[in-house]
UniProtKB/TrEMBL annotation:
<dbReference type="InterPro" id="IPR033199">
    <property type="entry name" value="DDAH-like"/>
</dbReference>
<keyword id="KW-0378">Hydrolase</keyword>
<comment type="similarity">
    <text>Belongs to the DDAH family.</text>
</comment>
<protein>
    <recommendedName>
        <fullName>Dimethylargininase</fullName>
    </recommendedName>
</protein>
<dbReference type="GO" id="GO:0016787">
    <property type="term" value="F:hydrolase activity"/>
</dbReference>
């Protein structure tokens, strides 16, 4: 397959600062009660870990108070290899968030594919990256309040080298709120009632593919979202929620004995339905792109 590399190898992380309007909704409404200063501290710890411990080059887009949800960088693009699909968020008010991301991705020499804004082009497609799980072998797309079937079709048309399966997501959550990659062949899955309900749909599609995955089950939903990076010297890094946030899941993470575990707080974003992976777009640039 063109542009395929071992899962988890990244060189860059694109992030966007926490705006003063953090905690508000893109439509002007109020979200859950959050602490701005605490959110900014947690963002700083996360970005510091990605840069200093994991060794990624950080590209930071300035915060924009006019775009209160723009810290959710994961939503605005899906990247595989040298191709970046700029998405179309469900909320009309969030669609201007993609503009800064589009510029940065182009500057990083990625081939930028547009979903398009016209109904006739996309058929009303909506797609947010937090509903997309790429395993290195195939894509799973959560069909949710935020992402529809037409959005999944656009993704499949963009990344034709990979199989794309849809997974209906129950309630208002996103697919990556209940599962994420914990390694090249490992999926971390929440064991909460909501996650089990989602994963029962369509006969546990995650486990019925042509590829075999190990499953690491965690008892708390917030613990299911982690960031895995295959670092230099083949070191496996896993950023995961802290013991304070997910005390019952620490035993599960300790099973990953060969990993460098990096507990990283994310409580303020979690209040808004976000997660660790919400904050960044991970990119693997080929050496000639430097």
């Amino acid at each position: 397959m063109a542009g395929v590399c071992p899962y988890g190898r990244f060189t860059h992380a694109v992030v966007r600062g926490i705006p003063e309007s953090f905690g508000k909704l893109a439509d002007g409404g109020e979200g859950a009660a959050t602490e701005l200063a605490k959110a900014q501290r947690q963002f700083g710890v996360l970005t510091g870990a990605l840069r200093q411990k994991v060794g990624l080059q950080l590209v930071e887009i300035p915060a924009d108070p006019e775009l209160p949800e723009s810290w959710r960088m994961e939503d605005v693009a899906v990247i595989q290899g040298d191709t970046a699909l700029v998405t179309r968020p469900w909320k009309q008010q969030r669609r201007s968030e993609v503009e800064a991301a589009r510029r940065v991705l182009a500057e990083l020499n990625l081939t930028v594919v547009e979903m398009g804004a016209e109904e006739g082009v996309t058929g009303g497609a909506t797609l947010e990256g937090s509903d997309v799980l790429f395993t290195g072998r195939e894509f799973f797309v959560g069909i949710s309040k935020h992402t529809n079937h037409r959005g999944a079709e656009v993704l499949a048309d963009t990344f034709r080298d990979f199989a794309v399966s849809t997974v209906p997501v129950c309630g208002g959550t996103r697919l990556k709120n209940i599962c994420s990659m914990g390694g090249p062949d490992t999926i971390i899955i929440s064991n909460t009632d909501g996650a089990r309900k989602t994963l029962r749909v369509r006969c546990l599609r995650f486990l019925l593919t042509d590829h075999h995955y190990e499953v690491l089950t965690v008892p708390e939903e917030a613990a299911a979202n982690c960031i895995y990076v295959r670092g230099p010297s083949k070191v496996d890094f896993l950023l995961h929620p802290t013991a304070e946030e997910c005390p019952d899941s620490m035993q599960a993470f300790q099973k990953l004995t060969d990993y460098t575990l990096l507990p990283t707080a994310c409580s303020e974003a979690t209040k808004l339905g976000g997660a660790l992976s919400s904050f960044c777009l991970l990119i693997n640039r080929k050496p000639h792109a430097f």
